[in-house]
Amino acid sequence: MRDLIGHFRYLAMSALLEVLRQQLLPLTAAPIARLAKIKVGQAKTELDALARGGQIFAFTQGKSTAYAAQPPLDLCAAALAAHIAELDAPVAPARLEKSLPQPLRPWFDEALGRLVVRGQAFWRINGKRRLIAAHAARPSESIAASQRRTLQKILAEANRHRRVPRTMDQLVAWLDADESSAKPAAAEVTSDLLRHWYELDRKRSSTVMIPIPHTFKRYEAWASANQRRADIVDFRQSVEALYNAGAAMLEPCERPHELPDHERQLQIPLTFGPPGYYWSPVD
């Protein structure tokens, strides 16, 4: 009999957990019981047991207790992030708080702080007011109207001496450009560098011909150390230029079909036959 009661309790708890995991808001025992098709008294007992066991979260709402499968702070932060992501313009924090369901508002301040730290919300200063926005202020937004007019005059004067005039929109786009997302310049490959990298690999090889991907790895490491971008096309063209000038020998791979895609891209067309995979400079 005791095992049977335990089984029914297990089924009840499983149903309650399933209901709570589907909710975006904390609920009191009555609506949870209705969704789980369990009597309210039994639901309250099992919910309290689940809360004591740390499987769900219980907190007081006025004179009643609400339950959630996730910490209320997490629920609040998720709801708040969704509202902020849809903002077209900065808004006052009080207005943002009112957009949340009542059960989540006690966690508003802490949730907002979490989103600011994560970069999902940004403070804006408008006179004496502090507002919340979906993205950080752009540099051009800090330019006052009078300053913008001065810039337009400077740009007009500069355009008199330019072969290709620039517009105010282009200037603003340059000011707002995200430098962190800009690609670094490609690392220039010279014949001296190629020969140097070849010699480094040749000292560790039993053959004269070195796989081009091995040299490319040297190029990648060198580009990274010099804060440049390794460009596979530039690299391949540099090796190909040596071959076309008679300053390098190329040999094909014995099993080209087994090469990974990135190594296939490094192969160089030969005058006759399959593309070159191995190379060696010619003195």
Task: Give the secondary structure arrangement, pairings included.
Blueprint: H1 2-21, E1 27-28, H2 29-36, H3 40-52, E2 57-61, E3 64-68, H4 72-85, H5 93-98, H6 108-118, E4 122-126, E5 129-133, H7 145-159, H8 168-176, H9 191-202, E6 210-211, H10 212-225, H11 232-244, E7 248-252, H12 261-264, E8 276-281
Helix pairs in contact: 1-2, 1-3, 2-3, 4-6, 9-10
What characterizes the major β-sheet?
A: 3 strands, antiparallel
Taken in chain order, the helices and strands follow as HEHHEEHHHEEHHHEHHEHE
* Spatial gap, N to C terminus: 93 Å
Structural class: alpha+beta
What count of helical segments does DSSP give?
Answer: 12
Within the largest sheet, what's the order of strands?
1-3-2
Can you describe this structure?
The chain has about 280 residues and is of the alpha+beta class. It has four domains: about 1-70, Arc Repressor Mutant, subunit A; about 70-135, Arc Repressor Mutant, subunit A (Orthogonal Bundle); about 140-175, no CATH class; about 190-280. It contains twelve helices and eight strands. It starts with a helix and ends with a strand. The model has no long low-confidence stretch (mean pLDDT about 85).
Give a nutshell description of this structure:
The chain has twelve helices and eight strands.
